[in-house]
C-alpha cells in the first residue's frame, strides 16, 4: 500500500508537467504564481465566501430569493463536479437524484404532513443516496467494466425515463408536478424564502463544500485523482476501480438529493423538468463553465450562468440559450478547464496531496 | 381483424420512422465513434428546410429533395470547423455536439417562435384495402425507408467509397498509409449521416408538424437504439432501431402508455448492460 501511494504520487506529478508544456503562453502567469508559493485557490474561496455572506445586506427581497436558488443550484453543481471533475464519470443524469429527492420530500409534505427540517432533509439525502447507489451500482459494477459512453448514456436515459414517468403518473401530478408544498419547519418556526433561508442554504453549502474539500484531499481523493488521470495504472496498483467509482457516484447522488430537497421546499413546488434532461444538462454547463475538477469552479459556474441568465432574461430571453451554447462551445474548444483556469494554475488544481508533509519528513533527519 | 391490421401498420410505420432517424446517428457513431448530440437538430433542420420551401410556395417534394443536400452540406462544414477537434475524446465530443445542438435548436426556435407549424403531406389521402384505410404518406415513408436502408447498405458494402469508409474505421493509420485521405472520409461520412437526418426530418414533418423540440424527441431513443443494436457496424444500429421502434410502438397497445414508455428504456439499458456488444456484434458492414 505504501509503495502504491508513492507510485501514485509519481503518476500525479507526471500529469501536470506534461500538460503544462502545451498550455501556451497565456497560462504561464498563474503557473508561475503557484510555483512562487502563492496559493490562489484559498483566496478565490475566501472571496466567494465573503461575497456570499454580505450579499443579502445589499439585495432586495426578490433578489435574495433568487440568490438562495443559486446557492442551492451551486450545491447541486458541487455534486456533479465530484462525479465528473474528480472521478471522471460522466453523469448526464444527475438531475435524477436531485429530482427524485425533490419529489420524495414533496410527497412527504403533501401526503404525510411531514415538514420538519430534521426529518425531510435527511429523507431527501437518503433518497439521493439510495437512487444513486442503485443506478450507480447497476451501471458501474459488474464483471466487465462499463464503457464511459455506456455510463453517460445510461445516466441520461435514466433521467429521461424518470422525467417521462413523472409526466405520465397521476399520483405525481403529471405535467404540473406537485404544487404548493408547505415550508420546512423547525418546531413551530416556518422556514420561508428570504434571508434566513439564504443563510441556511449557504451554511449547508459551506459545510458540504468543506466535507468535499476534505474528501478530495484525503487518501481517497488521491486515489480518485489517479483514477481520473490514468485509470489503468490505478487498477494495476490493486485499487478496485469500479468500487471507487460507485462510491463517488453515491456521494454525488447524496449531495444532489440534499440539494433537491432544499430546492423543492424553497420553490414550493416540484415539476417533471427537475428530474429530466433539462436540469441534467444545465448542471453540466455550470461545471464546465466554472471549471471542472475544482470545487470552487462548480460554485462559480453556477453563480455566473444563473446570474447572467437572470440579468439577460428581461431583454434577451430568446437569444440567451444561443449565447449559452456559443460560450459553452468556446469553453470546450479553448478553455477545457473552465473559467477558473484563468487564475488557477494546473499544478494547484491537481493539488499536492500531502507533499508538504513528505518534505518535512525528509528535512527532519 | 381490421384493428389488428391497423395496429400492425401503425407499429411498422413508427418503426420505419425510428430506423430512418437512427440511420444517420448509427453511421456516425459506428464509423467515427462519435455520439452526435446534434443529430436531433439535423433532423429539425431537415424539417425546417422543408417548411421553408413550402411557405415560400415551392412544391413540398422539392423541399424534401433539397433538405438532405442542404443539411449534408451544413454537416460537412461543421465537421471541418468544429467536430474534427473532438475525435480523440468521446465525452468531449458529446458535450461539444450538445452545445452545437443547443445553438441550432434555439436559433430555429427563434425563427419559428414557439409554434407548431404544419406541413401538408405531399401524397395525401389513404390507401383502401377492403374496409381498411391506411395513410398513404406513412406507407410512402415505409417504402422510402426500405429504399434508403438498401441504398446505404449497397453504398457501404459494394462501392469503393464504402470500402474506404470501412477501412478508415478499422485502421485509420493503415488507411492513411494506403493513400486514403482520412480527414476527407471523416468529413464525407459525417456529412452523409447529417444528410440522412435531414431526409428523416423532411419526411416526418408532415406527420409530427414542425416545432423546435422535434429532434430531441428522437435523440435519446436513437442513442438507445444504437447501443442496443451494437456500435461498429451498419446493420447493428438498424436492427436496434427496428427493435426499439417496434417495441415503443407496440407496447402501448397492451399496457398503460406511461409504463410502456419507461419500460422500453429500462429493458434497453438492462440489455446493453448484459450484452455490451449489442444485438449484432462483429465487424462486417
TrEMBL record, chain A:
Protein known as: ABC transporter permease
Gene source species: Bradyrhizobium jicamae
Record carries keyword Transport: no
Organism taxonomic ancestry: Bacteria, Pseudomonadati, Pseudomonadota, Alphaproteobacteria, Hyphomicrobiales
Bilayer disposition of the protein: Multi-pass membrane protein
Major localization listed first in the record, in broad terms: membrane
Keywords from the UniProt entry: Cell membrane, Membrane, Transmembrane, Transmembrane helix
Subcellular location: Cell membrane
TM spans (from-to): 40-59, 92-109, 116-141, 196-216, 246-265, 271-288, 295-313, 319-344
InterPro entries per the UniProt record, alphabetical: ABC_transp_permease, LivM-like
GO cellular component assignments: plasma membrane
Pfam families reported in the protein's UniProt record: BPD_transp_2 (PF02653)
Keyword Iron annotated: no
Automatic annotation (TrEMBL), chain B:
GO biological process entries: amino acid transport
Membrane-crossing segments per the record: 6-27, 60-78, 85-104, 136-156, 184-211, 223-244, 250-272
Example of a GO MF term: transmembrane transporter activity
GO CC, any one term: plasma membrane
Subcellular location: Cell membrane
Chief location: membrane
Topology of this chain in the membrane: Multi-pass membrane protein
Keywords, comma-separated and alphabetical: Amino-acid transport, Cell membrane, Membrane, Transmembrane, Transmembrane helix, Transport
InterPro entries for this protein: ABC_transp_permease (IPR001851), BCAA_transport_permease (IPR052157)
PANTHER family for the chain: ABC TRANSPORTER PERMEASE PROTEIN, BRANCHED-CHAIN AMINO ACID TRANSPORT SYSTEM PERMEASE PROTEIN LIVH
Family of the protein in this entry: Belongs to the binding-protein-dependent transport system permease family. LivHM subfamily.
Protein known as: ABC transporter permease
Source organism of the structure: Bradyrhizobium jicamae
Amino acid at each position: 500500500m505504501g509503495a502504491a501511494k508513492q507510485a501514485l504520487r509519481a503518476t500525479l506529478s507526471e500529469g501536470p508537467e506534461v500538460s503544462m508544456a502545451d498550455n501556451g503562453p497565456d497560462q504561464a502567469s498563474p503557473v508561475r504564481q503557484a510555483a512562487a508559493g502563492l496559493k490562489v485557490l484559498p483566496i478565490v474561496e475566501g472571496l466567494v465566501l465573503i461575497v456570499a455572506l454580505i450579499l443579502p445586506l445589499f439585495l432586495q427581497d426578490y433578489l435574495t430569493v433568487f440568490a438562495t436558488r443559486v446557492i442551492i443550484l451551486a450545491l447541486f453543481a458541487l455534486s456533479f463536479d465530484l462525479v465528473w471533475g474528480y472521478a471522471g464519470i460522466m453523469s448526464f443524469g444527475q438531475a435524477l437524484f436531485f429530482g427524485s429527492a425533490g419529489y420524495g420530500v414533496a410527497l412527504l409534505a403533501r401526503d404525510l404532513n411531514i415538514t420538519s427540517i430534521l426529518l425531510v432533509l435527511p429523507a431527501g439525502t437518503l433518497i439521493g443516496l439510495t437512487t444513486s447507489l442503485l443506478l450507480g451500482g447497476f451501471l458501474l459494477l459488474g464483471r466487465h467494466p462499463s464503457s464511459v459512453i455506456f455510463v453517460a448514456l445510461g445516466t441520461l436515459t435514466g433521467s429521461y425515463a424518470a422525467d417521462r414517468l413523472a409526466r405520465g403518473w397521476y399520483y405525481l401530478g403529471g405535467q404540473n408536478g406537485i404544487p404548493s408544498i408547505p415550508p420546512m419547519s423547525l418546531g413551530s418556526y416556518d422556514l420561508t424564502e428570504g434571508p434566513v433561508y439564504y443563510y441556511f442554504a449557504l451554511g449547508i453549502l459551506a459545510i458540504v463544500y468543506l466535507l468535499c474539500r476534505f474528501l478530495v484531499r484525503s487518501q481517497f481523493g488521491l486515489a480518485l485523482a489517479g483514477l481520473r488521470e490514468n485509470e489503468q495504472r490505478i487498477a494495476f496498483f490493486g485499487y478496485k476501480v469500479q468500487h471507487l467509482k460507485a462510491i463517488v457516484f453515491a456521494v454525488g447522488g447524496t449531495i444532489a438529493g440534499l440539494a433537491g430537497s432544499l430546492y423543492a421546499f424553497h420553490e414550493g413546488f416540484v415539476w417533471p423538468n427537475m428530474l429530466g434532461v433539462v436540469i441534467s444538462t444545465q448542471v453540466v454547463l455550470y461545471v464546465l463553465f466554472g471549471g471542472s475538477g475544482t470545487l470552487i469552479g462548480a460554485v462559480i459556474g453556477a453563480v455566473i450562468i444563473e446570474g447572467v441568465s437572470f440579468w439577460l432574461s428581461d431583454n434577451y430571453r430568446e437569444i440567451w440559450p444561443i449565447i449559452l451554447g456559443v460560450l459553452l462551445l468556446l469553453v470546450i474548444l479553448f478553455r477545457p478547464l473552465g473559467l477558473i483556469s484563468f487564475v488557477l494554475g494546473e499544478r494547484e488544481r491537481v493539488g499536492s496531496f500531502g507533499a508538504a508533509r513528505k518534505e518535512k519528513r525528509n528535512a527532519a533527519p | 381483424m381490421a384493428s389488428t391490421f391497423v395496429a400492425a401498420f401503425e407499429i411498422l410505420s413508427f418503426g420505419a420512422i425510428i430506423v430512418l432517424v437512427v440511420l444517420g446517428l448509427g453511421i456516425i457513431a459506428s464509423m467515427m465513434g462519435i455520439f452526435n448530440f446534434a443529430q436531433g437538430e439535423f433532423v429539425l433542420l431537415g424539417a425546417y428546410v422543408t417548411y421553408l420551401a413550402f411557405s415560400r410556395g415551392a412544391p413540398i417534394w422539392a423541399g424534401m429533395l433539397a433538405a438532405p443536400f442542404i443539411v449534408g452540406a451544413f454537416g460537412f462544414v461543421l465537421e471541418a470547423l468544429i467536430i474534427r477537434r473532438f475525435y480523440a475524446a468521446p465525452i468531449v465530443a458529446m458535450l461539444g455536439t450538445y452545445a452545437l445542438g443547443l445553438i441550432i435548436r434555439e436559433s430555429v426556435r427563434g425563427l419559428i417562435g414557439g409554434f407548431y407549424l404544419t406541413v401538408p403531406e405531399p401524397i395525401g389521402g389513404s390507401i383502401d384495402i377492403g374496409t381498411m384505410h391506411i395513410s398513404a404518406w406513412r406507407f410512402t415513408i415505409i417504402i422510402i425507408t426500405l429504399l434508403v436502408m438498401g441504398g446505404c447498405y449497397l453504398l457501404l458494402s459494394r462501392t469503393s467509397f464504402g470500402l474506404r469508409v470501412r477501412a478508415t474505421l478499422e485502421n485509420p493509420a493503415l488507411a492513411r498509409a494506403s493513400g486514403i485521405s482520412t480527414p476527407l472520409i471523416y468529413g464525407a461520412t459525417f456529412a452523409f449521416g447529417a444528410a440522412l437526418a435531414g431526409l428523416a426530418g423532411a419526411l416526418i414533418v408532415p406527420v409530427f408538424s414542425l416545432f423546435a423540440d422535434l429532434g430531441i424527441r428522437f435523440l435519446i431513443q436513437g442513442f438507445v437504439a444504437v447501443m442496443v443494436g451494437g456500435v461498429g457496424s451498419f446493420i447493428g444500429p438498424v436492427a436496434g432501431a427496428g427493435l426499439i421502434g417496434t417495441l415503443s410502438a407496440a407496447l402501448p397497445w397492451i399496457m398503460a402508455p406511461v409504463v410502456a414508455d419507461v419500460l422500453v428504456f429500462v429493458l434497453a439499458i438492462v440489455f446493453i448492460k448484459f450484452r455490451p456488444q449489442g444485438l449484432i456484434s462483429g465487424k462486417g458492414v
